[in-house]
Write a structure and sequence with these properties.
It comes from Kribbella flavida (strain DSM 17836 / JCM 10339 / NBRC 14399). The chain is mostly helical. The protein contains 17 helices and two strands.
Length: 404
């Protein structure tokens, strides 16, 4: 059997695939737990006697925990064995997920969500580093795509199923199910993830490369791209109802199609990242803009709307492996720390996009959020083009000079 050389030892091809599958499962569990609240918000609000807007803080707390806490935890644990970090992160997520199930404190629920968000950010960062280390350099993009696709499969399958469980057994039943899946992910990690001792410098020495101007410039692409996507996506249901004229189960069908497209795009995006990550980001931005343009112009034609949502999901999430690949590559010796930054940048973009789309739809009509996303996507195209000229540091530069 062909052997794959890694920085943490030698894994067989089957061992590599099993390790990547374990990381996929971990991402699936974390993604399901993150987004499950959206589908259960009204049940949580009623049970804990808070308003729905107040319950929405659970979503915000998670996003802030991931965006801010993920890089902090990554920096604090950068010298720890990566397998140990993944095991500890999943174990803590399982325990923290069960706390709201067993208590009735909304304040504690919010704090727990922020903590799980930070652990999610840590898992993403370390998971990507480990995945990229156990495959040959020419397959790094595909390794990233396997891991990140766990998140998008959770969007397509985990969240709808979890919402259904919540409707049958209550929101506590759904969170218990996520904890059980977390135990499965923990066992898989214990059995399948290889040991990966820390390599490279500590957080301080890596930070000068992880936060170099070229890396920050690449992160701008992430922020703007996700802002474009979520300006429209956050308010896609009102668009489908008011403009396309569909309701009920049909809306779920359209969203399922989008979810399936995101999962497919994230898988396929890894191959394109391996070929040319910078070019993939340009093509992805153009594809998102074109999809939103069709969505706006043909918003009243259900078949074309469905096709636009499919291409929207394919292009939007097809960019994600390239975003991660570019940031880690541009960071050079700071790649371990930088691996936590794309997720943080994405959450900043999501927050801005949701806000911008909300302002637009509040001032105008349901189509305004799509137009807002289109405008931001058009802006993203030249930004992605300009960022394509950024180059990783050479070995000599990395060792002898400051990052530029």
């Amino acid at each position: 059997m062909r052997q794959t050389s890694t920085r943490s030892g030698a894994l067989s091809r089957s061992g590599t695939n099993l390790a990547l599958a374990s990381l996929f499962v971990g991402m699936f569990v974390l993604g399901s737990g993150e987004l499950l609240v959206v589908g259960l918000l009204h049940l949580i609000a009623v049970d804990l006697q808070v308003s729905i807007p107040a319950a929405g803080v659970l979503v915000t707390a998670y996003a802030l925990g991931l965006a801010a806490g993920g890089p902090v935890l990554t920096a604090l644990t950068i010298k720890v064995n990566k397998r140990t970090i993944l095991i500890g992160a999943i174990a803590l997520v399982v325990v923290l997920t069960l706390i709201p199930v067993l208590t009735g404190s909304f304040g504690l629920f919010v704090a727990v969500r922020a903590a799980i968000g930070a652990l999610h950010g840590l898992f993403v960062a370390v998971g990507f580093v480990l995945a990229m280390s156990i495959v040959p350099p020419e397959r790094m993009g595909r390794a990233i795509s396997v891991v990140v696709s766990g998140l998008f499969v959770s969007t397509a399958l985990g969240v709808p199923l979890g919402t259904l469980v919540g409707q049958l057994l209550g929101w506590r039943g759904s969170f218990t199910a996520v904890a059980v899946l977390g135990v499965v992910a923990l066992v898989a990690t214990l059995m399948l993830i290889p040991s990966m001792p820390s390599s490279g410098g500590g957080a301080a020495s890596q930070a000068r490369y992880a936060f170099a101007p070229r890396v920050l410039a690449a992160l701008v692409v992430n922020v703007v791209a996700f802002a474009a996507v979520f300006s429209a996506l956050t308010y896609i249901v009102p668009f489908l109802q008011d403009v396309t004229g569909i309701s009920g189960a049909l809306i779920s069908l359209f969203l399922l199609a989008y979810g399936a497209a995101t999962a497919t795009g994230s898988f396929a995006g890894g191959r394109f990242a391996d070929q040319d990550a910078a070019r993939t980001l340009i093509v992805g931005a153009i594809g998102v803009a074109a999809s939103l343009l069709v969505l706006y112009l043909a918003g009243s034609i259900a078949v074309l709307v469905a096709l636009a949502l499919l291409t929207f999901g394919l292009f939007a999430m097809g960019m994600v492996p390239s975003m991660q690949y570019r940031v880690v590559s541009l960071a050079g010796p700071g790649g371990q720390l930088a691996s936590s930054l794309p997720a943080s940048a994405a959450n900043v973009g999501i927050a801005f996009g949701a806000y911008a789309g909300g302002v637009a739809i509040g001032a105008f009509t349901a189509s305004a959020a799509v137009i807002t996303g289109l405008v931001i996507a058009v802006v993203a195209i030249p930004i992605a083009w300009a960022a394509s000229f950024l180059k990783p540091p050479t070995t000599a530069t990395a060792l002898t000079s400051d990052p530029a």
